Amino acid sequence: MKVEVDVPKCVASGQCVMIAPEVFDQRDEDGIVVLLDETPGPASHGAVRESAMVCPAAAIHVVEP
Question: Domains in the chain, please, with CATH?
Answer without folding.
Answer: 2-63 (3.30.70.20)
